[in-house]
Automatic annotation (TrEMBL):
Keywords, comma-separated and alphabetical: Kinase, Membrane, Transferase, Transmembrane, Transmembrane helix, Two-component regulatory system
Chain ranges passing through the membrane: 439-457, 469-491, 503-521, 551-571, 577-598
Protein name per Swiss-Prot or TrEMBL: Histidine kinase/HSP90-like ATPase domain-containing protein
Location of region: Disordered: 759-779
Organism: Streptomyces osmaniensis
Composition-biased stretches (Low complexity): 765-776
Length: 805
C-alpha cells in the first residue's frame, strides 16, 4: 500500500522576541484539535474496513486490539474539551498516543492479508503526520511518537511475515512523511510569526499614538485646571492689597485640592443637572457673590463623567469671566436635551460683550478652559459675543460623539472606538493573508518533495507496469511544470492569477485521467500509482484561497475518474474495494481535511487571533496610558511643590498674608511662570519668543511698561533650556514697578536673553526659587542704583543632546 499522499499541513504563529503571540496560541490549539479528530476518524474508519476485509475467525482478536486503540483516541478527544475534574498529565497523553500506533501494529498479523497491510500503513502514516501537529510545541515528543509509529509498522511487518524483515521502502516513507509534516508546520508558523510581528509593530505604533493623544488631552486638562485655579488666584493676589481677602483662604485650599487630583481617570456617568447646581457664583476676587445665576435645567441629564466634568469646569470658568469682565451682576444658565439626544448647556449675560477674534491666543480662559476642554472629550463649545450686546457661551455634547484622544479622560468605557475596531479587522486580515500564504507554500513544498522523493522512485521502479510508459512520464513532467509555475508566483509573495490557476487545474485533472487509464485497474491506488495521492496537493496550493467546496469538487472529480477506470474493467472484489476505500480515505479524505483546516484557520482562527491580539493590545494601551498619566502627574506636582504649593498652602492657612509686599512679589513671579508654561503648548515658529511675550503680558497687566527687542535669526532651543533662559527674566519682571527692557540676541552658536528692570523693591528679598539651571545655561546679575541687569546665555556648541520639544 502506497503512502505518497500523506503529508500534513498545519500552522502556528509565534509572537516577537520568541514570546507566543495570540496567533500562535490559537493556531496551535486548532492544530491539536484537528490532529486528534483526524487521527481518531481515520483509526475508526480504516479499522472498520480492516475488520471487514479480515477472516471471520480473526475478527474477535482484531477487535480486542483495535477497541483499546479507539478508547485511547476517545480519551484524547475528551482531554481537548477538559471535561475531567483535572487535566491529564502530558506523560499520560503521550502514552495514549503511542498506544494507538502500537495496538494498530499488533493487529496487522491478526487480520492478515493486503487489507491489513493497507490499514496499518494508513493509520500509522496519518498518526505520524498528526503527531507533528498535536505536539507542535514539543518537537521531541512528536519525534518520539513518529519513531514509535515507525517501530509499530516494522513490528507488524515482522509478525505478519515470520522470517522476513520489514519493508524498508515503507519505513522510509513514514520517516519522510513525518519530516514533511514538520516542515509544513514550520513554514506556516513562520508566516504566522511574521504576521504577529507585523501586527505587534502596528499595535505598538497605535499604542504610542494613543498614549501620546491621552497625554496631550491630560496636559490640556491640567493646564486648564492650573489656569482656572492657582494661576488666577496668584495673579489676583499679585495685583494689590486694597481688597477684602476673606475669600482667599478657602479658594487657595480648593486650588491645592484641584492640583493634587490626578486628571483623566473619571469613569462612569454623572447627572449634569446636579453638577450645574453646584457651579459657584463668580467672585472676581473682591469677595461676595458678584454674579447671580438664574438657572433653568431640564434634568436629570445623565452623561459620561468625562464630558460632564468638562462642561462643569467650563461653566465655572465662564461664570468667573462674567464676574470679572462683563460689568453686570446677573447671568442665565440653561441646560436641556435636544431631540437628537444632544445635551446642550448655555450661559448668557447682557454685559458689555467683546470681540472673540480680538482675544490674544495666549489668553487661556476661552481657548483652554472652555473650548479646549470640550474638544478633548469629543464635544463642542462656542462663544458668541459682540461689543455692547452681551455674551453667550454654549456647550454641546452628543451621545454619538467620539473623542479625538484615546485616554480614559476622553473616552467613556461604554463607547466603542471606531479606529480600534478598524485595527481589529486589519489585524485579522493580516493574519489571514499570512496564513494563506504559509498554507500555499506548505502545500507546494509537500507537492515538490512528494513528487521528487516518493513519486519519482515509484515511477522509475515500475515503468513496465504502465501502458504506455511515456504517457506516465509526460504526466510527471506536467505536474512538475504546474508546481514550478505556482512557485514562481508564491515565492515572490504573489497570488496565482485566475487564468493561470484555471490552466493549471485543467492540467492536473488531465494528469489524473491519464494516469488512471494507463495503469491496470487492480493496481490503482497501489504502490505503482504514483499520481493518486499527489495531484490533490497540487490542487490544494492552487485552490487554498477559494472556498473549500472548490477543492472538494476537484477531489470528487479526481476520485470519480479513478472509479470510472476501475468500473470499466469490471466489479472489484471485497478486498480490493476495502483497499481502495482505505486509500481514498487516507489520501483524498486527508487532503480534504487539510483543506477544511485551512478554511477554518483563515475564516475562524485568524479573526479570533485578531480579536485576542486586539484585546491584549487594549490592556497594554490602558496600562501604558495609566502609567504615563501617573508619571506625568507626579512630575507636574513635583515641579509645583517647590514654588506654587508653598504659596497656596501659606495663603490657604493664613501663614502668608496678601498684604505683604514680598508675598505679592512671589505671587507675581509664579503667575508669570504659569503663563510661560501655558505658552509651551502653542504651535509657533519661535517658542522662546512666544513664552517671553506671555511673561511680558503679565507684567504689562499690572502696569509695567516693557519693551521687547529681538536681534538675529531664531533657531531651535530645547524646552528645558528655554525654561532656564526665561526664568531670570520672570523674576526680574516680577520685581519691576514701572519699566523694563527685554532683549533676545541670536547668534550662530549662542542665545542670550537679558532684562533690565528699574525701580526695584527697596529691600532686596531672597530670590524666588526657580527651575534648576539647564546644562550650558549661565546667568549673570548686576545691580546698580535702582535698576538690575540680568543676562542668561546658552551655548549651542556645548549643549548635550536634549529634547527639543
Amino acid at each position: 500500500m502506497r503512502l505518497g499522499g500523506y503529508a500534513g499541513n498545519g500552522g502556528g504563529a509565534a509572537g516577537p522576541n520568541g514570546n507566543p503571540g495570540s496567533g500562535e496560541r490559537l493556531l496551535n490549539l486548532a492544530l491539536e484539535r484537528y490532529g486528534v479528530w483526524l487521527r481518531s476518524t481515520v483509526v475508526c474508519l480504516c479499522g472498520a474496513l480492516g475488520v471487514v476485509s479480515a477472516d471471520a475467525t480473526e475478527i474477535p482478536l482484531a477487535v480486542s486490539l483495535l477497541v483499546p486503540a479507539l478508547l485511547a483516541c476517545g480519551v484524547r478527544l475528551c482531554s481537548l474539551r477538559r471535561p475531567l475534574p483535572f487535566p491529564l498529565p502530558l506523560a499520560l497523553l503521550w502514552t495514549l498516543d503511542a498506544a494507538v500506533v502500537v495496538l494498530t501494529g499488533l493487529s496487522q498479523p491478526v487480520l492478515g492479508g493486503v487489507g491489513a497491510d493497507a490499514m496499518v500503513e494508513a493509520i500509522t502514516g496519518i498518526c505520524v503526520i498528526t503527531f507533528q501537529h498535536e505536539w507542535a510545541t514539543r518537537p521531541v515528543a512528536a519525534a518520539a511518537l513518529a519513531a514509535s509509529g515507525t517501530a509499530a509498522c516494522a513490528m507488524g511487518d515482522v509478525l505478519s511475515s515470520p522470517g522476513h524483515g520489514p519493508e524498508p521502502a515503507e519505513l522510509v516513507r513514514i520517516v519522510v512523511l513525518a519530516g514533511l509534516s514538520r516542515a509544513a508546520y514550520l513554514i506556516v508558523r513562520a508566516q504566522a510569526r511574521a504576521a504577529d510581528r507585523s501586527a505587534a509593530l502596528r499595535a505598538a505604533a497605535r499604542r504610542e499614538a494613543e498614549a501620546a493623544a491621552a497625554r496631550r488631552a491630560t496636559e490640556r486638562e491640567y493646564l486648564a485646571t492650573l489656569h482656572d485655579t492657582a494661576s488666577a488666584t496668584l495673579l489676583m493676589v499679585s495685583q494689590g492689597d486694597a481688597r477684602d481677602w476673606s475669600w482667599l483662604p478657602p479658594r487657595a485650599r480648593q486650588d491645592l485640592e484641584a492640583l493634587s487630583a490626578v486628571p483623566g481617570f473619571e469613569t462612569g456617568s454623572v447627572d449634569l443637572a446636579a453638577l450645574l447646581g453646584c457651579v459657584p457664583e463668580g467672585t472676581g476676587g473682591e469677595g461676595g457673590a458678584l454674579v447671580q445665576l438664574k438657572t433653568r435645567v431640564d434634568g436629570p441629564l445623565a452623561v459620561p463623567s468625562g464630558p460632564g466634568l468638562a462642561i462643569f469646569n467650563g461653566v465655572r470658568e465662564a461664570v468667573t469671566n462674567v464676574a470679572r469682565h462683563s460689568g453686570v451682576r446677573e447671568a442665565e444658565l440653561r441646560a436641556w436635551t435636544e431631540k437628537d439626544g444632544a445635551v446642550v448647556v448655555e450661559l448668557s449675560d447682557a454685559g458689555r460683550g467683546f470681540d472673540p477674534r480680538s482675544v490674544p491666543a495666549r489668553r487661556r480662559g476661552i481657548s483652554g478652559s472652555v473650548i479646549g476642554r470640550m474638544h478633548a472629550v469629543g464635544g463642542t463649545a462656542t462663544v458668541t459675543s459682540h461689543p455692547g450686546t452681551g455674551t453667550r457661551v454654549q456647550w454641546r455634547w452628543h451621545t454619538r460623539a467620539r473623542p479625538p484622544g484615546t485616554g480614559h479622560e476622553a473616552q467613556p468605557a461604554n463607547l466603542p472606538h471606531p479606529s480600534r475596531a478598524g485595527a481589529h479587522t486589519a489585524v485579522a486580515r493580516l493574519i489571514r493573508r499570512q496564513l494563506l500564504h504559509g498554507a500555499q507554500l506548505a502545500a507546494l513544498l509537500i507537492s515538490l518533495l512528494s513528487q521528487f522523493i516518493l513519486s519519482l522512485q515509484q515511477i522509475t521502479a515500475h515503468q513496465s507496469a504502465y501502458r504506455p510508459a511515456w504517457a506516465q512520464t509526460a504526466a510527471f513532467v506536467c505536474l512538475a511544470a504546474v508546481a514550478a509555475c505556482g512557485a514562481a508566483f508564491l515565492l515572490r509573495g504573489r497570488q496565482i492569477p485566475p487564468r493561470v490557476r484555471a490552466w493549471s487545474l485543467a492540467s492536473v485533472l488531465t494528469v489524473s485521467a491519464v494516469c488512471a487509464f494507463t495503469l491496470a485497474p487492480e493496481r490503482l491506488t497501489g504502490p505503482r500509482d504514483w499520481a493518486f495521492g499527489l495531484v490533490g496537493w497540487h490542487a490544494l496550493f492552487l485552490l487554498a484561497d477559494l472556498p473549500v467546496r472548490a477543492f472538494a469538487a476537484f477531489l470528487g472529480a479526481h476520485v470519480g475518474v479513478n472509479a470510472i477506470a476501475v468500473l470499466l474493467s469490471g466489479a472489484p472484489t471485497a478486498a480490493e474495494s476495502a483497499a481502495m476505500g482505505i486509500a481514498a480515505i487516507t489520501t483524498c479524505g486527508f487532503q480534504l481535511s487539510v483543506g477544511i483546516l485551512v478554511t477554518r484557520l483563515l475564516h475562524g482562527t485568524a479573526p479570533a487571533a485578531g480579536d485576542e491580539a486586539a484585546r491584549e493590545e487594549e490592556l497594554r494601551t490602558r496600562e501604558r496610558i495609566h502609567e504615563d498619566m501617573q508619571r506625568d502627574h507626579k512630575e507636574r506636582y513635583r515641579a509645583l511643590t517647590a514654588t506654587t504649593v508653598p504659596l497656596l498652602m501659606g495663603l490657604g492657612h493664613g501663614v502668608l498674608s496678601p498684604h505683604d509686599e514680598e508675598v505679592r512679589l512671589r505671587c507675581r513671579v509664579e503667575a508669570a511662570r504659569m503663563r510661560r508654561l501655558f505658552a509651551e503648548s502653542d504651535a509657533v515658529s519661535d517658542p522662546l519668543l512666544n513664552e517671553l511675550r506671555a511673561c511680558v503680558e503679565v507684567a504689562e497687566h499690572r502696569g509695567v511698561a516693557v519693551s521687547l527687542a529681538v536681534r538675529g535669526r531664531p533657531g531651535e532651543v530645547p524646552r528645558e533650556v528655554r525654561r532656564a533662559l526665561i526664568d531670570p527674566v520672570v523674576v526680574t519682571l516680577g520685581r519691576s514697578r514701572s519699566t523694563a527692557r527685554v532683549t533676545v540676541v541670536w547668534t550662530w552658536h549662542e542665545v542670550r536673553v537679558s532684562v533690565v528692570g528699574t525701580d526695584r523693591a527697596t529691600e532686596e528679598a531672597s530670590p524666588s526659587p526657580g527651575p534648576a539651571t539647564a546644562a550650558g545655561v549661565s546667568v549673570t546679575r548686576t545691580a546698580r542704583g535702582g535698576s538690575v541687569w540680568v543676562e542668561a546665555s546658552w551655548s549651542k556648541r556645548a549643549a548635550p543632546e536634549v529634547d527639543l520639544t
